[in-house]
């Protein structure tokens, strides 16, 4: 077989490998190297330019921008505390993992067989990472518009589902109980701002460990934010 025939066959095979995904996201990549990188785990290639981690970093920032813009339009009277709480729910790893499942991103992942994707926690983490890296790849290949279209068509379309399951405080209490940990303590660590625009800062303590604080325009919102931060640390 000539080198040209081998090259053409390989190119067609690579294109077909992602064709279903391109149909799902309604975007055809100009440069498939971005897709290849977006679905390559560091266990396959530890070089930063060849695995998905840099694209994941980029995608994370783009998701924040697009979701923030949509929230400001959806809640024109919403204060920073409300917008922050709503956004944190939509960009959390657990919800991004569900978006990855929606697109069946795990089926495109190139990863060493030593990584056990049968473990739900590991699989979910990869789904979330792949969603972010796909957004990063989209941005490098086509700019912000295709990213915005995909984010609005997935995250934003399913936002109500995410907001319905945001009782992080209750979920944290259940997690501690099922994991034989002491019940979490929620403590207000700081209050800033004028009386009409206070910002509450709350941190969670479990046993002797204190977790990163959450913030909100009232104590309840800050507690939910702190509980979410704690859950992400405990479950990742």
Strand content: 5-15%
Rough shape? globular
What is Rg? 20 Å
Q: What's the CATH H-level homologous superfamily of the largest domain?
A: Ribonuclease III domain
Structure described in brief:
The chain has 10 helices and 4 strands; from the N terminus they run αααααααααββββα. It has helices spanning 3-25, 32-38, 53-74, 80-91, 93-102, 120-142, 144-156, 159-164, 168-178, 219-235; strands at 185-192, 199-206, 209-210, 214-216.
Structure description:
The chain has two domains: 3-164, Orthogonal Bundle (Ribonuclease iii, N-terminal Endonuclease Domain, Chain A); 168-235, 2-Layer Sandwich (Double Stranded RNA Binding Domain), CATH 3.30.160. The chain has helices at residues 3-25, 32-38, 53-74, 80-91, 93-102, 120-142, 144-156, 159-164, 168-178, 219-235, and strands at 185-192, 199-206, 209-210, 214-216. Strands 1, 2, 3 and 4 form a four-stranded antiparallel beta sheet that branches. It is 61% helix and 9% strand. It contains ten helices and four strands; from the N terminus they run H-H-H-H-H-H-H-H-H-E-E-E-E-H. With 236 residues, it is an alpha+beta fold.
What's the topology here?
Layout: H1 3-25, H2 32-38, H3 53-74, H4 80-91, H5 93-102, H6 120-142, H7 144-156, H8 159-164, H9 168-178, E1 185-192, E2 199-206, E3 209-210, E4 214-216, H10 219-235
Antiparallel strand pairs: 1-2, 2-3, 2-4
Helix pairs in contact: 2-6, 3-4, 3-6, 3-7, 4-10, 5-6, 6-7, 9-10
């Amino acid at each position: 077989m000539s080198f040209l025939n081998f090259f053409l066959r390989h190119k067609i095979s690579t294109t077909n490998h992602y064709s279903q995904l391109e149909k799902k996201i309604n975007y055809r990549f100009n440069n498939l190297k971005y897709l290849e990188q977006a679905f390559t785990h560091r266990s396959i290639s530890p070089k930063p330019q060849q695995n998905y981690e840099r694209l994941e970093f980029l995608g994370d920032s783009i998701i924040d921008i697009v979701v923030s813009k949509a929230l400001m339009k959806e809640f024109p009277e919403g204060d920073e505390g409300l917008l922050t709480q709503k956004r944190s729910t939509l960009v959390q790893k657990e919800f991004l993992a569900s978006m990855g499942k929606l697109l069946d991103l795990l089926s495109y992942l190139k990863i060493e067989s030593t990584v056990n994707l049968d473990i739900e926690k590991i699989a979910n983490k990869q789904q979330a990472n792949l969603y972010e890296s796909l957004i990063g790849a989209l941005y490098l290949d086509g700019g912000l518009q295709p990213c915005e279209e995909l984010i609005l068509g997935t995250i934003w379309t399913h936002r109500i589902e995410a907001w319905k399951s945001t009782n992080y405080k209750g979920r944290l209490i259940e997690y501690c109980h099922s994991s034989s940990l002491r019940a979490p303590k929620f403590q207000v660590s700081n209050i800033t701002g004028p009386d009409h625009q206070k910002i509450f800062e709350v941190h969670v303590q479990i046993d002797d460990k204190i977790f990163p604080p959450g913030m909100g325009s009232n104590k309840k919102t800050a507690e939910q934010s702190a509980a979410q931060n704690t859950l992400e640390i405990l479950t990742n």
